[in-house]
Amino acid sequence: MEQIGLEPLKIVVIDDDPTGSQTVHGCPLLLRWDRASLEAGLRHPSPLLFVLANTRALGATAAAARLREICRSLEPALKAAGVTHWLVVSRGDSTLRGHFPLEREVLSTELGPFDATLLVPAFLEGGRTTQAGVHQLNGRPVHESAFAQDRLFGYTTSFLPDWVAEKSGGRLPASSVQQLEGELLTAAASGPPGQERLRQRLAAFRDNVCVAVDGERPEQLAALGQAIRELTAPHQPEGGRPRRFLCQSAASLIQGLAALPPQALPPNELARLRRRNGAGSLLPGLVLVGSHVPLADQQLAGLLADPTCAAVELEVDTIARLLAASAPERPLAELGQQLTHHLAALLATGRTAVLHTSRGEHPEPEAAARRRLGLTLAGLMARVAAALAPQLGYLISKGGITTHTLLAEGLELTAVELQGQLLPGLSLVLAPLPTATALPVLTFPGNLGEASTLAQAWRLMEGHNQGGEEGDGGRAGAP
């Protein structure tokens, strides 16, 4: 197949929480999806536009309504921005938690028809791989992990065709799911004959068939991304029609689709974005930990082992009792003020303040009550962090709902620009503040890393691994 003169591809990623940009850089992340915001995002020179929909924090009905709202603003925005070659990615969790197949169904109805939905949950940077259709976490079937026991999005199998059948209640039987094998992707990464076989395989899909895609190495997903870019281009050779694919994927495929150059700022330079006060002294940091998965518990314990980190616990049972009262707003506001004063006093000493929820999952019997509790906790943490923001040099936010609520509600942002990754999978964004320089915010997924990763990220932001940067200009507790 001769090389097609490709038009620029705009990749629109609808992210079910704010952490799916964890393999890319230099692109806008929208926290609003009105037509004007989308059009501005589409005019950005990056090939990527992330829409942080946060649907994983919602029930199915509300998530579907939000997706429809985004789609109905997106289509006219694409036309107004003059974008003709575009691809939509529904970015979801690499440990298979989320609203599947709801996202596929809503996006297909609103933006289809599609020839295939490519299910690509591999997130190589986080140890999530797919081999022979079996999705794995660090080499073990992911259904054996704690993530599969999620009370809202749990599952019992790691074989993707069976997982599709389970999550769809049998509406999408396992026998209807096609597989795109790792061997084919490896051959496509090796040269033109393999590339042509992959294109032919993709071009043969019809009627929005669900396709489970293997992924073990970056070159496999890069080859897949190249084939998708070529097959979806508006102008095909010999009068062929462009194919239309919906990608339901984790973060690694997005880099394969965009084929970005290295990020402009290496990790040590990202850490040096930490803010200083008017005298040039480094300002202290705040860490938020809302995620309650076991990995987050281990990471929090590792961070708090350092005596220069000071913990403040937000008791989940206390919030649950307040929500059960007839008028919880005033006591919640008073609690927020108390937390703010306590944390401000810690920050004034130059220590890193760590605001975290009590560990474990609160045993709310109803899904709606669990979501309300989670959103209330995130909202309270976000308001406290926003009140402290002018005093901060940086902020680390662990947990998808925690981070989205911080950016969208606490800091009241409409968009942020992604700078790059401090560590694999950990993205740093700059959050504009009304009366100060932009605040570096490290977005930290709840399910990512090893027990030491949170402490490692904190040490980088503190300058411990940067040849004495911590001592450059000293530290200060207030601007």
Number of helices: 15
| Percentage of residues in DSSP E strands | 15-25%
- Count of domains: 2
The count of strands amounts to 18
Outline the structure in words.
The chain is of the alpha/beta class and 479 residues long. It folds into two domains: 249 residues, Rossmann fold, CATH 3.40.50.10840; 205 residues, Molybdenum Cofactor Biosythetic Enzyme, Chain A, CATH 3.40.980.20. 37% of the residues lie in helices and 20% in strands. The chain is built from 15 helices and 18 strands. The strands form two sheets. The protein has a 15-stranded mixed beta sheet with strand order 9-10-5-11-4-1-3-2-16-17-18-15-12-14-13, with helices on both faces. A three-stranded antiparallel beta sheet has the order 6-7-8, with no helix packed on it. Helix 1 links the parallel strand 2 and strand 3. The relative contact order is 0.15.
Briefly characterize the structure.
With 479 residues, the chain is α/β, with parallel strands linked by helices. 37% of the residues lie in helices and 20% in strands.
Key features of this structure:
three-stranded antiparallel β-sheet, disordered N terminus, 2 domains, Molybdenum Cofactor Biosythetic Enzyme, Chain A, Rossmann fold, 15 helices, 20% strand, 479 residues, single chain, 15-stranded mixed β-sheet, alpha/beta
